[in-house]
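Exercise 7.
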Amino acid sequence: MTLGAEWKFSQVFGEQTPGEDIHDCDILSAIEFDKNGDHLAVGDQGGRVIIFERQTGKEGLFDRSSRRDSGQFNLPLWQHPEFKYKTEFQSHEPEFDYLKSVEIEEKINKIRWCTKLNRSLFLLTANDRTIKLWKIKEQKVKKVKQMDINPFVTSENSLLADKSFVSGQSEPSHANSTRLEWTDKMNGTLPSHLADITNVASRRCRSVYAHAHDFNINSISNNSDGETFLSGDDLRINVWNLDVREQCFNIIDMKPKDMEDLTEVITSAEFHPFHCNLLAYSSSRGFIRLVDMRKSALCDHSVKILQDGGSRGPKTLFTEIITSISDMKYAMDGRHILSRDYMTLKLWDTHMETSPVATYKIHEHLRPKLSNLYTNDAIFDKFDCCLNGDGLQFATGSYSNHLRIFSCGSENEDGITLEVRKSPNRKPTSQATTRPRRSSLSNLTRGFYRQGQDSSENEISCNLKSKLLHLAWHPTHNLIACSVGSSLFMYHA
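Solution. The predicted structure, written as tokens, is:
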């Protein structure tokens, strides 16, 4: 698939109407496909998780019109995957830490799928301080068809009393009717002609991993061993066993003895895709550290440090802010890493420590406006990045709801830019005003902090309130899911 391939709109869930007000709790905050691409999980700032599943019978069809236009008659054209709503549940609730007098928001920061077992789905969800393991399982439920019940007959005998339903005789209808439900625990005792059998997704919280982070959790990552996962906050990275929720093992601790000596914080962490002993984590200074857990139980001293030696130049007040890595992803080959900072998208080869393989400019046009971006807090926005299955194409978001797609080795350094919305002629709606920004360790490391203010945005060419922060690439198809406010958009090529 070349970069010149045309990207088209596929689906949208929760589309906003023009002029519709968006509540903060409805804004999407995390997106993740499972390993096979059969399910998609989305989290929002209200602590909810919504699950979508892939529709069956939608692929392997011949697109005759496209084949006729392209002149190719010997190769079948596969349709892109389509998804449908499956279920949703409340994963996290707002909490309050009385010992530290800190309010813990219910916002879902990260979602990660675990190994599927016995047709049951498992996924990890995290807010600022707590991680939960959820199990989603489909159960067959028998629901009694709607029928009139004699109010003088008890519910246990109502089926026997209602002869009119079985024989077809007419009887006086009653205003109050009863609908009974039987699960598969009844062993099919209800006659099939009286019941509708439907699949219902039940969910249950299997484990809660709490009280291990003093700072906001920014990363969770499953290990390839299928037994452990890591969780990272601003200063620490812990390793958990999925079956042990009472304790974890701290492998990295960057907290100095005196917090005034703090120079950098952890921004993202991820396990290697198939080596269970390797992991990588990024920092606010633009470094990526590669760690081998076999060398030492405490991994504070990293094996390799990936840094962009070519970016050294005159430092300004905003240099450290714009070089802070907001997201990092391993490619499936395990050798390459994709990282995103405020200005650029970079592809790294773990065998080359001094510079990235490729650098794609995202916000270069905003460099003269860094002062304005700092004044209104836009410079602290954290954009996600993602790769396709073969690691040759990359995507990230930008302002004005723009989706940026790049290809490795392509002569087009600017890539493809799509404005994410269903109707091209519709004016994009702005996101709701977010909550006032709270001070974070990332700001403390730079020695300054300012409260967000309304600055003159007419000097900036893009719409800073409409921003595409979160996105994910389907593992086997050229399909990208991305969020705009409270809407989930999908594009395919």
